[in-house]
Amino acid sequence: MDRARLLALLDAVRRGETDVATAADRLAALPHAPPTHGADGTAVAVVDHHRALRCGFPEVVYAPGKTPDDLARIAREILARSERLLVTRVEGAGLARLLEAVPDAVHHARARAVTVTRGEKGPGRRGVAIVTAGTADVPIAEEARVTAEALGEAPETIYDVGVAGLHRLLSRHERIRAARVLVVVAGMEGALASVVGGLVDRPVVAVPTSAGYGMNLGGVTTLLAMLNSCAPNVTVVNVDNGFGAGYVASLVNRLAEEGPAPR
Q1: Same domain, 39 and 22
Q2: Potential cystine with 140: which of 45, 58, 242, 250 (Cβ 3.0-4.6 Å)?
Q3: Do residues 46 and 113 share a domain?
Q4: In the chain, % of residues over pLDDT 70
Q5: What is the pTM (predicted TM-score) of this model?
Q6: Residues 6+ apart with CB under 8 A from 219
Q7: 16: burial class by Cβ within 10 Å (0-12, 13-18, 19+)?
Q8: pLDDT, tens digit, for every residue of 96-145?
Q9: Residues contacting residue 243 through CB under 8 Å, at least 6 positions apart
Q10: Is the pLDDT of residue 148 over 60?
């Protein structure tokens, strides 16, 4: 249940369309489901059904470390009370089992993600732009894009405009400045985040990737470079964390368009 559904339930009680006992039963199931057990009987997950009400989106499933059957059980539990699902970093046998268990799931191959959207889908909020330095950074950018879309955005993508060919970025200057929030994904030395930050009066969420040679150290070099950005509007998520960047960008964009939810 999300905020809109809770308000609709309370309004139905107020108008006498739903009795108090029925509403109480629905609210009693909000906090979390009973533990989800694996094939060996081990309790492997406690799905947080309260997450959408608190945070605006249901619990997101991180696939690594879960068996294919774990993924299927958790996904079905989320979808039993929600019309939306996002599973990240899902591949191989887990992916196959998930698509079998949830036939209307959509696989986003480059992003290594699976989404489900049931019910009416709106056009999405405009305002998020996702920018990459090179093609090697696109998988992480796609994870950010899919995440933002799942949260209700209509992100624009501007790929392969790194500092090795700065004219490519400058030729898209107007599109970049039109965004409310930018996700900048880069490996190597990570300079693109600072360059974009110096061009706009908008928040920039920088995503260091593990793309790079030698002493790139799996993205640590890029991470440190972005953390030391001289552009004050740049903030940084962890290495290869496209999901986190897309989530934060969606929150910023929603707040900019809708304002804070009434308390």
Answers
A1: no
A2: 242
A3: yes
A4: 86
A5: 0.85
A6: 187, 208, 209, 210, 211, 212, 239, 240
A7: exposed
A8: 999 999 999 999 999 999 999 998 888 899 999 999 999 999 999 999 99
A9: 60, 88, 143, 144, 147
A10: yes
Name the domain count of the chain. 3
156-158 and 128-132: which strand pairing? parallel
Indicate if the pLDDT at residue 167 is higher than 90: yes
pLDDT at 241 over 80: yes
Answer whether 185's CB lies under 8 Å from 245's CB.
yes
Determine phi and psi for 102, rounding to 5 degrees.
-125, 90
